[in-house]
Amino acid sequence: MGAGEKAKAKIEQAEGKAKEALGTALGNDRLTAEGWAQKSKGEAREAKEKAKDTFHH
């Protein structure tokens, strides 16, 4: 997995998780949904990179 892409994925997941938690704490469904979507996008990016690593070895 490329270090840059791995870092982007982890940052995206962390930001999404924080947004989701803040939205939940504030009762803001829109912010919660945005956080969940961002976290999921980071997880998908990480999975894609892991798959690329698997097929390159």
Describe the structure.
The protein is mainly α. It has 2 helices and no strands. It has helices at residues 3-26, 29-56. Helix 1 packs antiparallel against helix 2. The termini are close together. The relative contact order is 0.22. The model has no long low-confidence stretch (mean pLDDT 92).
Quick recap of the structure?
With about 55 residues, the chain is mostly helical. It has 2 helices and no strands. The protein has helices spanning about 5-25, 30-55.
Compute the number of strand runs: 0
**Separation of termini?**
11 Å
Major sheet attributes:
none
Shape: elongated
- The multimeric state of the shown protein is single chain
How are the SSEs ordered, and which strands pair?
Layout: H1 3-26, H2 29-56
Keywords:
single chain; 57 residues; 2 helices; elongated; mainly alpha
